[in-house]
Structures are given as structure tokens and as C-alpha cells.
Amino acid sequence: MKSAVCPGSFDPITFGHLDIIERASKHFDQVIVAVLENRTKSSLFTVAERIEMISENTKKFSNVIVDSWYGLLVDYCAKNNIKSIVKGLRAVTDFDYELQMAQVNLQAAGVETMFMATAPAHSFLSSSLVKELAHYGGDVSTMVPANVNAALRKVQAGK
Ligand code: PNS
User: Fold this and answer.
1) Which of 24, 52, 63, 154 is deepest in the core (most CB within 10 A)?
2) Nearest C-alpha neighbor of 12 from the set 142, 127, 136, 154
3) Which part of the chain is the Cytidyltransferase-like domain (predicted)?
4) What is the pTM of this model?
5) Cα 142 to middle of ligand 1, angstroms
6) CATH code for the structural domain at 3-157
7) Does residue 104 line the site of ligand 1, with CB under 6 A?
8) Which residues are within 8 A (CB) of 62 and not within 5 positions of it... i.e. 6 or more apart?
9) Which pLDDT tens digit goes with each residue over 66-80?
């Protein structure tokens, strides 16, 4: 079985992530959406909350599962016998960082990274931008699924 992992912090998941997950699911027998820690970012939602939000929106894809991992992505891949990572590339600004990670993951463990061009409609979209907009009461309903929008509103209401 050909499996791929779509890793990320998904804090929270956006329509951009979901587009990549759906498209990846058409090229692999199984796609695992793995919630990992990004040590350069502080998170708004717990890992359990993120998993719940992702699961709700990926349950329609029969070959997509959601998981989490604390540690190196390559260790997760080794543990689950995964040889491919799929990531979305929005713009050239993503490239340096993503290329570095892809090269380290290839060198360290022989795991290949496949980049998918983000759909133009989502090229500006990021979880950080969504959180910033939502923090100040901006409308993010066209950027995230309904359950994520509701969770962001709840956070905003509790401030
Ligand atoms: O959605 P993000 O925040 O861009 O995802 C980045 C993530 C979580 C995939 C990356 O930080 C990661 O792989 N973290 C796990 C630790 C690891 O393997 N780091 C890469 C070593 S180069």
C-alpha cells in the first residue's frame, strides 16, 4: 500500500490544507494527516482540538486518517513505514524553508517530499493569517471550515 503523510501544525486547518489533503488522497492509497509540533510557532489550539477539527472535515475521504506525533517527522515515517511526505507550496516565500526540511528529511531517512502547488484561490492563506484576522474579529468564514470558524469565534468571545 502506498501511503503518504501530510504533516503540519494545522493550528487550525484551513481550506488550503484541505485542498492539498484531498488532492493527495487521489494519488496515494492512504494519506495520513499528521499533527506535529512546530517549535518556531506557539499554538492556539491543543493537539486534540486540532485533530477533532481535521477529522470532522476529512471523514468524507475514505483513505484519509488523522494522527499526531511528538518528535521528528522522519521518526514518524520510519515507525509507520511511510516513504513520502506531501506538502503544499503557496509561493516562493515558502520555498527556502520547505526545501531545507525536504533535504534534511531525505538525507536523514531517505523520505521523499513531494510538493503540490497550492490552488491559486488559497495562495495567500495561512493559519497564522487566519488567527490574526479572527483575533481582531475579522471574517474568516471563506478561509476555514465551519467548525474551525466556530472554534475561532469561541476563542475570540472568551477573550
Ligand atoms: O504547518 P507547519 O507549521 O509549516 O508544519 C511544520 C512541521 C510541523 C511539519 C515541521 O515543523 C516538522 O516536521 N516538525 C516536526 C519536527 C521535525 O521533524 N522537524 C524537521 C527537522 S528539519
Assistant:
1) 24
2) 127
3) 5-132
4) 0.96
5) 26
6) 3.40.50.620
7) yes
8) none
9) 999 999 999 999 999
